[in-house]
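Take a look at the protein record below and flag anything odd:
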Amino acid sequence: MPNAWYLQDAKFQHPKAIIQLQLDTRDAGFGVEPASHFFATVWRKVLLEYAAEVIHMGANSGSTFYVEVNPADITLYWKGYSETLCDFVMQTLNSIMNMNKATTAPLLETSFANAKAWMIKDLEGAECAKSYKKAMGLLEGLLVSCAISEKEMAGLISNYEFKAFVDQKKKWMKSGQSTWLVHGNVSIEDATALCMNANALLNLLPVSLAQSNEQCGVVELQKGTNTVYAFEHGNSSFDANLSYYQYGPSGGDMKVEALNTLVHTYLSSPFVNALKHGQGMTKVAMREAHFRGVSGMWFLTMSDKHSSEDQTAAINEHLIGAKG
């Protein structure tokens, strides 16, 4: 039985299913070197162009396909009617394998050119984004040392050539670990067969997940500390501030787990209320962040009255309560 999580819709018997494949790999330095995240982002764009015909045919039968590049893994999503979804999964995986093997195919070159043009356009638009969106875009930089900013990507993509992409692609998806999640009206037999056939097609050399995680560049701050990114733009009426507070893993220690729960409660209620109502922030957003066993919370604050410097001072003042 492959590494898979399975849950059948036995209550409603709905003819739809969701299938997710998480590929944990360190090929081409992914999850370790910032430049590898750039390559994976380009690879994703090229794949969506290369497999456009298969994706379009799947859409006509009610199925969708999406790829997400995370800091330490690549996640593939499929959603659609259960009768045809397993076939659609194998069709898209075949497209991935064909693209990874291709070197000079016209379709690959055209897909790369289109993907590069779209990335340049998207990254140019990102420069005009509002300050709070730029702040949210830097969250990965707080948690993962291998993260790469949109500004850095823009500098790389303009000079990135097809030959360099092909050379990097030769080292891609050779080893790693696959984790499947199957949900919906799919039988356990069909789900098992799909996972086994797909893993055989991918043919990844096995890698120890523990060893893989150690290589991943996780930023481990001292527990109870916070890091702040501040933004001030003359063409924006709002200043934005992104703050990340890390309280760390419990490691099975019940006292530490209880302390983490207490800190989480403090940050999610009194802290947010104090910033929003006491300090008069225009907007305060909060979200938990869990990555590779490192836990914390981040806060996005916006204000048309307080500068980023004032917001930082207010955040640090209220975090003293959590540190105590």
Notes: The CA atoms of residues 93 and 198 lie 7 Å apart.
